[in-house]
Amino acid sequence: MKIAVVGSGVAGLASTWALNEYSDHEVHLYEAEDRIGGHANTVLLPARAGFEECHVDTAFIAFNRCTYPNFLQFLRLDPAIRILSTSMSFSVSRDNGFFEWSGKNIRSIFCQRKRLLDPSMWILLYDIMRFNMCARRLLDGPAELGLSIGEYLHREGYSDSFRDNYLLPMTAGIWSTPPDAFAMTFPAQTLIQFMMNHQLLRVIGKSEWLTIAGGSQEYIKRIIEALPRDQLHLSTPVQSLTNIGDAAAPQILLTTATGESEAFDRVIFSCHSDAALSILKAGGGLTDEEHQILGAFRWNENECVLHYDEEMMPKNREAWSCWNYLAESSVDEYGETRLNPPRLSITFGMNALQHLSYAKHGPVLVTLNPPYEPRPEMIIGRWKYDHPLLDANAKRSQALLKCIQGVRSIYYAGAYLKYGFHEDGFTTGLEAAEAVAASCSSSLRLPFFVVRDGGQSPKAVSPIWCRIAALAFDMLEMSGIRRVVGSLLGSVMAAVRWIFSFWADMKM
């Protein structure tokens, strides 16, 4: 059969790899842009005075052993692809350094020594421990299915400091979504399931994160080199799809933006849902189900800037981490202060993330939606990426996608169909390839077994010590002991601050 794959992001690359190398089908890969890879975009940071050039990823950067099983199995097929350990430390820098902290170690937590006497900082740490122990219980029953994370935090009495200086920044950073209203309406079970799967609720130990030496371009080369040159169509936007032929021999007429048309037996949409919807509309055969399901997904555009301006990092160097959340407070139309902006800003420290020597390459930074412009002479390039907003409507459409999968000989793949990550895109690409092969009774001989749940563990049971700790936190909350102790500590810290202030005034 002749198969078209529309979109060369990770899902399209996975489908192309599987069908091109492990079946007898003829595969054509269509890409609207002039490069392959989507969010897997490795670019060259050129040499500058005193520093050598290097390759840097600007979107997809890291993965881990636990929740990327299929992608990791694929990488291990090629011994030339080197996999390196990396870190995923996280920091928050607010209002040009007024408030900063990082979770790397005790020194970075209190990188601003004055926070040792700040009650809200201690409440933040207490609530992080409580959340890590107690939140996983939300996965136990279906009764909480419609609960948003904002509703959960309010119901359980979590502090504003925990919300604004930990959970919202982390949630926004993970999904590259706005950290204000959307993050608060995010499905609580989805977030907590993700955090549990990725070992972000661990109190003891850390999960191991990985990166590809030389960048994600290394695995893209592996796939594209095996695809015949005349079957790769770069800078070729697909305009429309139209069903032709009869029921006995159905075909799809694919028409590009330049007006060229070609018939295919099957088509895999590995582009974003809105792009697929637009192409189907242009073809004239869009069904109500296709419109309803694909139209429910929303997307958020983000700008990535590759630069070497260290002003885009926390002011306190002890807080420097791999992920550095940047926020500027603002006043809304009602005169209320908004701590978290409507747009996510985060700087990735690529020296640590991708083993780029500071002495050899200088500072290498990627900032998502800079809150202010890096110095122009330090900017290397800009790229825009769309990320899915995985709200309640998106989760419903994910469950309904099976109703249109394979209908009219059209299949769908993409990270937006699961949790929104590279593994999800890769897995759905493999699943679409398997479905295409099954539709024509042909075999797809993949070199490894495809893990269906992407390494997720919905039935994972918390260890007994964790459940005991959660009960202890429940007792502290219900008895009011936490509030009493918190109030007492607040008074003591206020007195200590007054003594220090009085002593400083006396010295002057």
UniProtKB/TrEMBL annotation:
InterPro entries: Amino_oxidase (IPR002937), FAD/NAD-bd_sf (IPR036188), Zeta_carotene_desat/Oxidored (IPR050464). One of its GO terms (molecular function) is oxidoreductase activity. Residues 10-280 form the Amine oxidase domain. It holds the Pfam family Amino_oxidase. It comes from the Eukaryota. This is FAD/NAD(P)-binding domain-containing protein. The lineage of its organism: Eukaryota, Fungi, Dikarya, Basidiomycota, Agaricomycotina.
